[in-house]
Amino acid sequence: MDRRSLLKMIGAGALAVTAGGALAGCNGGSSKTAVGNSGKNLTPWPTYVPFTGPKPDLAGDASVGVQPGYLNYPQQLAQAVKDKPGDGSDVTAMVITYGTPPKPADQNQLWQALNRELGVNLKLVMVPDAEFQKKMATVMASGDLPDIIMFGAGYYLSREQDFIQSQCADLSDLIGGDHVKAYPNLANIPGYSWKGMGRIGGKLYGIPTERPMPGNSLILNRTAMEKAGVPRDWNADQFLEGLKGYTANKKWGIGASTSNFTGWSTAAYHAGSFGAPNLWKVENGAFVPTYETEQFRKALEFMTKLPYYPDSLTTSAVDMKSLFYNQTVASMTDGFGAYAATAAKVKDFTFDFALPYAKDATPWQGNGRFGYVVFKKAPVDRLKLLLRVCDYLAAPFGSKEYELTNFGVEGQHFTRGADGGIVLGDLAKTENNTTLPIKYVAAAPQAIYFPGNPEATKRLHQWERDTLPRSVADPSNGLRSGTWSASGAQLDKVIGDGLAAILFGRKSLSEWDAVVKDWKAKGGAKAAEEYAAEHAAA
Questions:
Q1: Measuring CA to CA, which residue among 192, 186, 190 is closest to residue 207?
Q2: What's the sign of the alpha-carbon dihedral 117, 120, 126, 129?
Q3: Which residue of 95, 154, 161, 303 lies most exposed, with the fewest beta carbons within 10 A?
């Protein structure tokens, strides 16, 4: 993608934000049913072939989603890719970014090393998180597409599936079933991640960026709770007592951020603790929203008693993490990925994910993926090249390729400690897979490993073992609903606004029924019908 094309795409932003209406016509006006899988011939999910690399110190359990844990970095690395993937051509990928812009490729040793190993000239169009929805709508409206396009990252784009079905490559014959074995590292992506991405019209169009099965939870200052005599395996009364006891002298028991109130995420841990179904309950084939179950109502009532940080509604996720790190708040609602960031930041106290506070809890699973990439339509040989590039970037933990994509070049970005572990150097502060976000093109399934912090690995692995066997999935995960595709962001906002109003005293608990009624009228009831039909077909 040259500079002129990129500027053309960005310049169309004012119109493209409303591109949903235009894109609705991609399938001749039948978009709400064309993207569904009901009545379609379903491409088989890619065959799962696990990577046989270095043995973990803490065994995983794929049946319930417990990850393998590594207390030390593997001493013998595997070779995950036999041949150079590329042919020297340019490959353009558009992905989200949360970091500062990287140095250009000709000044960036990590970028240069990746291009050498991939055998392509990888050109990244990096879209800041705050601009992602607008820029993606621009690209979708422009017709001027990069080779690889990322979707997801927690965003719903209007008519996303319609656009993909109309404008992007159908990969079914290249990765469906045993075909994926041609790309061993893609075959190592577990089935729950592919299912979380889902099919479109019965076909496979993308490659998911795996995330472990745990969903949003509560990350906790374990040291503070132990000092207060609150046990790890607590009940609701002990939970409330511990958080209230912490709340004094400009400290609060629990915090949340603005992004937690864009939907249900701030309630996920509590709803699961009270045994509420994960977003939907399937009852005699019908989809019933968790928001109108008795368990969710009890969770919401309990949440009104919690000592929330008073500015949670206007605090960014980044600032809330800082408040947790400096112990202004004792706990924070966050996603699973928060654990790794916390392991790197927290040195003054022990942190942990909180166990549910009831014996009959149903902890909520996540959707198994952060996002996914699709390809611009192209000849088969070109699509195979793009798949090989993704296969390299998805090389698993314990491989030489993973080491490059995650830690850089030995001697330039890192050295090895006395125990053989990774010791990052100064160059890695500016050249890494956050500033150069290749991990959103493709990435390995995550393993539990925190350099120099084996105790954090043990705590997370034990939390997964204690939590995941009783966790429950969202039955709509990976299914298609035309209504949700068009209105999911609006529907999540209805719930988020209602939760915020009740938790911070602008509405009474008795008004929750009206919130749910509004949610159903604006599309929730219709989405339930469509999910039920999709569920029956799948």
A1: 186
A2: negative
A3: 154
Residues 225 and 206 in one domain: no
pLDDT digits (tens, 9 = 90+) for 235-254: 999 999 999 999 999 999 99
Query: 520: which DSSP letter?
Result: I
d(CA 153, CA 367) in angstroms, rounded, equals: 11
Q: Find the CATH number of the domain harbouring 516.
A: 3.40.190.10
Q: What pTM, to 2 d.p., does this model score?
A: 0.81
Q: For residues 185 and 398, give the distance between their C-alpha atoms in angstroms, rounded to a whole number.
A: 12
- Identify whether residues 250 and 275 lie together within a single domain: yes
d(CA 76, CA 53) in angstroms, rounded, equals 9
Cβ-based neighbours of 424, under 8 Å, separated by 6 or more = 407, 413, 414, 451
Task: Render pLDDT for 383-406 as a digit per residue (tens, 0 to 9).
Answer: 999 999 999 999 999 999 999 999
* Cβ atoms of residues 356 and 467 within 8 Å: yes
Q: Which residues contact 380 (CB under 8 A, 6 or more apart)?
A: 174
